[in-house]
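Continuing the series of single-chain predictions for the mutant panel. This is the parent chain; the variants come on the following pages.
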Amino acid sequence: MRRSRRRAGTLPGGAAAFPLLLAIVGLGWLQRHPIVLLIGVVLFIAGVGAFVYSAWQQRERIRKSGIAEIDQMDGRTFERKLGLLFRDLGYSVRHTKVSGDYGADLVLHKNGTTTVVQAKRYSLDRKVGVSAVQEVVSAMSMYHAQHAIVITNTYFTAPAKTLARSNQVELWERTELINALTTVRKQQDPRPQNS
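Parent structure:
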């Protein structure tokens, strides 16, 4: 899976203003100007608040995304979406490193069971093959997991399904993913759904 990376030297959102705000605070402190110091502190706190709020908004946008939005996500955002999905399903979730993850994108814990998850977000005309199953099988021993899942927004090839069955790996194709999204949506909005 291709991983997206932020360009070196760029900061998220308004974080680029932090050095300027720190300079204002520092200048006020060095020059013993309480008004400059106060303005700098207020601006710094407002900047931190705006950054935290922006991150929260982005997380909620990903949390509420459905299958149509998932189909447009990059691989890393899909992993974040799955992490939020599993948290909503009651798991504790740990994201693995971007590279060198030993075949698992997520490590889940619930009721004393460790589960490793391999996420494959592909275009709809592409199926997930045996390599994804092989990767998650190897991740089980690395992370001392008792269970493994490969999740995709598309479908699996027949050989991938055969290998998964022989290794007791759970496969979530598009239908299972949509069912999980629907389950969480119903938990978050318990009002009766119109059929």
